[in-house]
Amino acid sequence: MDNNINQNDINNVLNNIMKKKIIIIDDDPLVLKTIREYLKDDFDVAIAKGGSTAYRYLEQHHVDLVIIDFEMPGEKGDSVLLNIRKLPYAAKAAAIFLTGAADTKTVMEILKTKPQGYLVKPVSKEKLLEKVHEVLHKSIV
Description:
By secondary structure, this protein is of the alpha/beta class. Helix content is 45%, strand content 18%. Strands 2-1-3-4-5 form a five-stranded parallel sheet, sandwiched between helices. β4 (94-99), α5 (104-112) and β5 form a beta-alpha-beta unit.
């Protein structure tokens, strides 16, 4: 057995420890899969298909960012975010809303919860990564 630890192994471990943690909350499995694929190389990504699944996860896990669908059946995204902000592991997490609607009424509803950003679906990988990096950078400055 080789007891030598190479620098690449050390760097990989450190990168995984230092990766920002993101949870994606959406009722659409395809959106969850796509967004996770976009982010998985740069971030530690968890997914939840709705508020109740997210709450269970966030009762035990810290996250730096919540990416949440605004229009979900049952509990809407704004209500989910307000409840998440009451949880110790997520209270200070930044938030980005995803929405399929860009009308003024929807945007105004989103802005009431004071997210750090919102994106209109479908969203490109480049636009999502740009917004995520921007929001996470602002949250540490």
